From TrEMBL, chain A:
Source species: Candidatus Sulfobium mesophilum
InterPro entries, A to Z: Cyt_c_oxase-like_su1_dom (IPR023616), Cyt_c_oxase-like_su1_sf (IPR036927), Cyt_C_Oxase_1 (IPR000883)
Gene: norB
Top-rank lineage group of the source organism: Bacteria
GO MF term set: cytochrome-c oxidase activity; heme binding; nitric oxide reductase activity
Name the UniProt record assigns to this protein: Nitric oxide reductase subunit B
Signal peptide (residue range): none
Automatic annotation (TrEMBL), chain B:
Residues covered by the Cytochrome c domain: 41-121, 143-223
Pfam families: Cytochrom_C
EC number: 1.7.2.5
Top-level EC class as recorded in UniProt: oxidoreductase
Family matches, as Gene3D superfamilies: Cytochrome c-like domain
UniProt keyword terms in alphabetical order: Electron transport, Heme, Iron, Metal-binding, Oxidoreductase, Transport
Keyword Oxidoreductase: yes
UniProt source species: Candidatus Sulfobium mesophilum
Protein's name according to its UniProt entry: Nitric oxide reductase subunit C (Modular protein)(NorC)
Domain of life, per lineage: Bacteria
Single Gene Ontology MF annotation: nitric oxide reductase activity
Protein's UniProt keywords contain Metal-binding: yes
Amino acid sequence: MTIKHESQKIAEYFYTFAVVLFLVQVLVGIIAAVQFIWPDFFILKFNIIRSLHINAMVVWLLVGFMGATYYVVPEESETDLWGLPLAKLQFWATAGTVTAVVLGYIWMGLNPQANSPIMGINPLNEGREYIEAPRWADILIVISVLTFIFVNFMTMMKTKKWTGIQGTLLGGLTFLALMYLPGLFYTKSMVKDQFWWWWVVHLWVEGAWEIIAGALLAFMLMKVVGARREVVEKWMYIEVGFVMFTGILGTGHHYYWIGTPGYWLWVGGIFSSLEPLPLLFMVWDAFRTTRSARNVTNRAGLFYTVAHAIFNFVGAGLWGVIHTLPQVNKWTHGTQITTAHGHLAFYGAYVLLVLSMIYITLPAIRGVKEFNASRAYQAFWWMTISMVFIVLTITGAGMVQTYMERLMGLDYVTVKATYNLWFWILRVIFGVGFLYGVWIFVVDFFKLGREPMPAVSAVPGEA
Amino acid sequence: MSNKAARNLFIFGSLFFFVIFLGMTYDTLGNLDKRAPEITDEVDAGKHVWHKYDCIGCHTIFGNGSYFAPELAKITEKKPKGYLKKFLMDPKAVNPAAAMPKFGITADEADKLLAFLDWSSKVDTNGWPPKPILAVAAGVAGQELSAGEKVYRAHGCSDCHIISGIGGTSGPDLTHVGAKRDRAWLIGHFKDPDDYVKDSAMPKVEAPEADIEKLADYMLTLK
């Protein structure tokens, strides 16, 4: 397995940056977990640490998608990338902007007054969850994404091979860029603020990102098991179609309690309850395609791909649907139940997706036919078992919180500091387990294809 | 189904649902101002303070945020404003157990922030957060309360204080207060907390003398 077009190598730049940010995300995640037990632990307090934790995640997944796209588009278009130097510039500009934003958060953590508005605009942190990045960085991010889409679009225009996969990928990326815009203006009303904010957050992760995931899943199934394009693409359309049909109006499950009209309880409740179905299709599709496979070229890649499909369904689907009905959500909204769902959903839907893309494309980029996959499996089990237990402990904490705070009426701080203490302790322990898994993955990422293969034919008796 | 049919289903189906979504968005935006009080300049200034200190980095508002610290949309209904203002400016000075750092919020910023949070407390949120059902049930069908307990409830003391695990954590735990304080101290303290505890953020108990005495008697039973 080698790459067909030299310019596909640019994917590795993006992967490397993504992998480093992944490690940063998990390191600060452990600091945040410890702060649930000792709020004064560490020089940077929870608000900064948490901003770093979720922003590192959003950025590394996005950067991972970009790397994957730069790999997929030349392959699908059967030509080299249009404007490779522009793509490299886009990479360095993105990395520079992200680093500046991170330094800004740290500065604000050391000196909160540094975020005082300059001409009405907060220079370091917008103070809006997930889209904390200040306005100047928003503009640079928009330019970066537009440049990225432009390079890929021009590449497709070179040969005009409009495959379903790259058309869907382009559609998902354009939708992603468009849905960043509702987060770019100030509203006086906190209700409208949150209304538009959900356009960005929900229509990204349960809209644009799922379209990209569907396209990449189709690509990977073709690559690793040699599935037929017509079949894979047809199911891709059906899957991403149903993700949209349920997901767009499913946004309503965020409009129950923020000051929006009551009809959203009906619309959000019904459509978001259907959201797990397309994710279940994807699992069935992955298994069906894999069963019919004759020659698997990259077992580790296939392993991660199927795991992605399963945990997308469990994390985003099942852990979401348990608290999506308004009758349930009335009691669980704003508790740790949401945190538990967030962790498993992002891990299953997007972390495993980017890692599968890396395991499927990196060997080709490094020009190796085979690689020793033992570290890939080790990393998977350490990460996945740890994440499942992290999610179970947070779910437990959320159930205790829902019962004691929301049903019994105990004080928030009492429940958090006393009754949930053991859950926080367990979460830190499993967090360290997760970090160990990530570390194995990071080591594997840098060593893959760069060390000699162990002797395969270690047949007993052979001297 | 052919590939082309599947593709068209995806594209036009998505557009169909997006158009419905846009229509509902239009209707919702037209309704929002009726469901919330008017936004004064002070409320808007308070929202700017909210963003400046990245309050959502720990708290939630309308249930959205970071789940690390209490929900704030209706906080001004729960705690006295005088307490909240002092707390915002220097959390650990009024509650040594507080996890919130001192950010350097000024008195002016605290006033604006409280105006903003007053606004958020009056937004029609379709009944969220719901009243805790067990606490409500206990209040209706609970055992006979003593005269002092009735005063304690009527003044919302448990919003900030805990007795035997029930109540808020903003003020000191009162479970064993009767073993630490005498009657004269308690009565004097209720009338003017600041005289007895330096920089106290507790509001004065505005009640008739008889009620204050009953409250003190109740405190003395807590040992």
